[in-house]
Amino acid sequence: MVKCSFCSAQAVYVNRVSGLAYCRRHFIEYFERKARKAIRKYHMLSPGDKVVVGVSGGKDSMALLHLLLKIKKKIPRLEVVAVLVDEGIKGYREKTIPNLVKYAKKQGVKYLIASFRDYVGATLDEIVERGSEYKLPYMPCSYCGVFRRYVLNTVARELGARIIATAHNMDDVVQTYIMNLVNNSWDRVVSLAPVRESSEEYIVKRIKPFYEIPEKETALYSLLNNLIQPEFIQCPYVKYNVRFTIRKLLNELEENHPGSKYGLLRSLLELIEMGRKHKIIEKKYTRCIICGNPASQAICRACLFRAQLNLLRESEKALLRESIEKHPELHRLLSKMNTP
Ligand SMILES: [Zn+2]
Ligand SMILES: [Zn+2]
User: Fold this and answer.
1) What are the tens digits of pLDDT across the range 249-269?
2) Tens-digit pLDDT profile for residues 112-162
3) Which of 104, 173, 277, 285 could form a disulfide with 111 if both were Cys (CB 3.0 to 4.6 A apart)?
4) Is 151 in the same domain as 251?
5) What is the mean pLDDT of the chain?
């Protein structure tokens, strides 16, 4: 039995980098201290902020919601709204949604369920099916990631919230970093900063309070606070995912060389800083002509996907047609769409 390094209780966690062991109480303290430190260091939250927390009902996002509700007491007039994005994946969200609803009711936190069906026009299962029917070259996770961001942005703007907090942990960030290196997508590396903000009114600030916390620790924090059931349901689409392979590789690396993930995170932060200084990887945004969310072209990726999947509403198609003169590049897209 390993003992806590700070008291005589039994340890529930050993940090392999520092060698320190933690009991339940001291682990929770350590975890919350680390998250608070990141929030301060990267200037994530200020008094009076209204924050939308993207929740899936899974371990990371429940941990984030729990943490922000604790922090709320220390930041004056901080408002927290939990937004549960229901992608519509059969057999995947049946347990997590009731789990979040139960928690939100108990804690008296405002929550909202935003489904792909309502905001995008179809469930992810339908989208994947339609995508292969239309022979579109995208993987399920590409749709899912793009549409999740789209739903959260849209809901935040509807609620008048200026900040979206997501539960991306250190493992998520480092995996995406490696994926971007593999794809040679340097421009996307900037979007991996712990905070992204802009002076533009329509661009909602995005924060990742778990940026420096490994997945193991967010999972344990969730378990120790009884935020989730120990049984874990894996997304059925995970097998199509490059991330899955990279995750396995990184875990093996960390196992044999503790501290490797943190090393990669530090190299990422340095890269972002260099990019900022020399303005080489700064991404420019415009406003999507259809939905008004940030976009790197005339229309955002979510609206592009929706157009290709024939999920745009009539009013949205009309907007697209009106913009053809200003944006001739949209011609090809429109001509491919099944317009009535
Ligand atoms: Zn202890
Ligand atoms: Zn759009």
Assistant:
1) 999 999 999 999 999 999 999
2) 999 999 999 999 999 999 999 999 888 888 898 899 999 999 999 999 999
3) 104
4) yes
5) 90
Measure 168 CA to ligand 1 centroid, in angstroms. 27
CA of 296 to the centre of ligand 1 (A): 49
Answer yes or no: do 272 and 127 share one domain: yes
- Same domain as 216, residue 316: no
Amino acid at 317: K
Say if 170 falls within a structural domain. Answer: yes
Q: State the total domains in the chain.
A: 2
For residue 11, give the ligand nearest its CA: 1
Positions of E strands within the chain: 13-14, 21-22, 50-55, 79-86, 110-115, 163-165, 195-196, 205-207, 286-287, 294-295
Which helix or strand (DSSP H or E) is residue 180 part of? helix 170-182
What's the 9 CA to ligand 1 centre distance in angstroms? Answer: 5
| Amino acid present at 228 | I
DSSP codes, 238-289: GGG-HHHHHHHHHHHHHHHSTTHHHHHHHHHHHHHHHHHHTTSSPPP-EE-T
Find the ligand nearest to 25 CA: 1
- What count of other Cβ atoms lies within 10 Å of the Cβ of residue 159? 15
Do both 230 and 296 map to the same domain? no
- Domain housing 329: 286-336
For residues 226 and 297, membership in a common domain is answered with no
Instruction: Note the ligand closest to the C-alpha atom of 4.
Output: 1
Q: Return the closest-CA partner of residue 318 out of 329, 332, 305, 307.
A: 307
pTM: 0.89
Ligand nearest to the CA of 286: 2
The answer to whether residue 229 is domain-embedded is yes
Q: Which of 215, 112, 226 is nearest to 167 (CA)?
A: 215
Residue 21 Cα to ligand 1 midpoint, Å, equals 8
Same domain, 229 and 100: yes
- Of all ligands present, the nearest one to the C-alpha of 149 is 2
Rounded distance from Cα 223 to ligand 1 centre (Å): 17
